C-alpha cells in the first residue's frame, strides 16, 4: 500500500482509492517490485529480472521504460 494505491498480489489486482486499475500481469509484477523497493532506486537489469527472469532473451533494457511509463 502506498497512499491510496493498494496491490493485492493474491488476486492480481491493483486499486487506487478503492477503484480497480486494469493492469497487465507484467505491469502488476513491476508495480509490486517498485513498491517492495520502498523508494530505493532499482537498475533496469533488476527490473527486467523481476519481470522476465534471467532468461529474458531478446528483451532490450529499454523495454522496461514502456511498462514504467504505463504505470
Main pleated-sheet profile: 3 strands, antiparallel
Strand tally, please? 3
Number of helices: 3
**Computed CA radius of gyration, to the nearest angstrom:** 12 Å
Q: How much helical structure, as a percent, in the residues? A: 40-55%
Low-confidence stretches: none
Multimeric state: single chain
Strand arrangement, largest sheet? 1-2-3
Class per helix and strand makeup: alpha+beta
Order of helices and strands: EEEHHH
- For the residues shown, what is the average pLDDT? 87
* Alpha-carbon distance between the two ends: 15 Å
How big a fraction of the residues is strand? 15-25%
Please tell me what the overall shape is: globular
